[in-house]
């Protein structure tokens, strides 16, 4: 990890991002269905139209050749991610002093969603971010980044580079775990593109309105709940509202 202070002051108010989500896939939905809505954010003023046009061409190519998005490798990758989720679920349960199947039983990470992100080179990386500062609205997310770097996590009041480690996966704690989720962002770079995949785990859509809250077995007089119960639907709705104002959503659910 390396610390990166000087850029931060000048970049903390940036609102422009330069990242295309080239594939979104819900692995449970009949094997693999590529989403046709592949955009993240397109808010570049200068040169933006050209960039958007190129992005649209990528979208059209994917629509014309949907098999691109359902390649065997993607399905295989998801199978491995699901196995990893099961192992992490057991390890996290045990680390909390619960039975190893506790988190699996409450079905808090039953669904998975894969995003493949493409960050094109940016002529003005000092004016644009690859991905704005955010926390994930998931239970947790695993990220694989290529060797270009650019991912940063907010730690002890500064942005810290998460340097790529060959063969390593990152596991990001998401908001639904209701610990302090890791705020992160991705820098834009002027030379060469960057790709990453983010595999998100969250409660299944059949539990959209199921309230999740502090685990009762872990509460005591000296360890009272810090957050109230919240459903995935309620949380996601609040998050989307808040993201526009760039304020913390977790804070809304604090007791
Ligand atoms: O591209 C990355 O390294 C991070 C992606 C990310 O944070 C996300 O998709 O939520
Ligand atoms: Fe993220």
TrEMBL record:
Keyword tRNA-binding set for record: no
Superkingdom of the source species: Eukaryota
Keyword hit for Iron: yes
Family named by the database record: Belongs to the iron/ascorbate-dependent oxidoreductase family.
The name this protein goes by in its record: 1-aminocyclopropane-1-carboxylate oxidase homolog 11-like isoform X2
UniProt-listed PANTHER family: 1-AMINOCYCLOPROPANE-1-CARBOXYLATE OXIDASE HOMOLOG 11-RELATED, OXIDOREDUCTASE, 2OG-FE II OXYGENASE FAMILY PROTEIN
Domain Fe2OG dioxygenase: 110-205
Alphabetically ordered keywords of this record: Iron, Metal-binding, Oxidoreductase
One Pfam assignment: 2OG-FeII_Oxy
């Amino acid at each position: 990890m390396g610390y990166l202070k000087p850029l931060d002051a000048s970049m903390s108010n940036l609102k422009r991002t330069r990242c295309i989500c080239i594939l979104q896939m819900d692995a449970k939905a009949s094997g693999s269905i590529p989403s046709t809505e592949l955009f993240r954010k397109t808010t570049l003023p200068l040169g933006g139209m050209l960039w958007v046009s190129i992005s649209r061409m990528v979208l059209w190519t994917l629509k014309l050749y949907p098999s691109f998005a359902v390649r065997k490798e993607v399905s295989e990758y998801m199978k491995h991610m699901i196995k990893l989720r099961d192992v992490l679920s057991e390890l996290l349960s045990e680390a909390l002093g619960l039975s190893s199947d506790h988190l699996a039983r409450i079905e808090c990470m039953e669904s998975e969603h894969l995003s493949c992100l493409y960050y094109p080179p940016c002529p003005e990386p000092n004016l644009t971010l690859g991905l704005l500062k955010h926390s994930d609205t998931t239970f947790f997310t695993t990220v694989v980044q290529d060797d270009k770097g650019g991912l940063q996590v907010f730690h002890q009041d500064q942005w810290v580079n998460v340097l790529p480690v060959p063969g390593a996966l990152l596991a990001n704690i998401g908001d639904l775990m209701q610990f302090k989720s890791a705020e992160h962002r991705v820098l834009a770079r002027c030379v060469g593109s960057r790709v990453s995949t983010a595999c998100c785990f969250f409660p299944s859509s059949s539990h959209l309105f199921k309230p999740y809250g502090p685990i009762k077995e872990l509460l005591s007089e000296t360890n009272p709940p810090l957050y109230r119960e919240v459903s995935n639907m309620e949380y996601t709705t609040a998050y989307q509202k808040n993201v526009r104002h760039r304020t913390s959503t977790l804070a809304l659910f604090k007791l």
